[in-house]
Write a structure and sequence with these properties.
By secondary structure, this protein is an alpha+beta fold. It has one domain. 24% of the residues lie in helices and 33% in strands. It has three helices and five strands, in the order E-H-E-E-E-E-H-H. The chain has a five-stranded antiparallel sheet.
Length: 89
């Protein structure tokens, strides 16, 4: 998976590129990029769209997640997200 920060891709594409995918916080997805040896962080905009916001190594992924977590709702609002975080599935 070769994606760049700021790129909007399908959730399927975001999760398919890695060996695992995990949701750290409601709306923040993390997917391992096997090809390049790092983790991709993305904000889920709706059921099928993910905004790639960052990449991290195993060593600094927790720090990056903590930096992005408070910004999730703001980013979703900026991109016209249809996510209903109170009924998130």
């Amino acid at each position: 998976m070769t994606v760049k920060r700021g790129q909007i891709i399908s959730k399927e594409e975001f999760m398919a590129g890695g060996h695992y995918g995990k949701e750290q916080y409601e709306g923040l997805l993390v997917s391992g990029d096997v090809e390049h040896g790092y983790l991709q962080l993305g904000v889920q905009l709706d059921e099928d769209r993910v905004l790639v916001v960052d990449s991290a190594s195993e060593d600094n992924v927790r720090e990056r997640i903590q930096n992005w977590a408070p910004q999730i709702q703001k980013i979703q609002k900026e991109y016209g997200s249809n996510m209903d975080l109170q009924n998130y599935s």
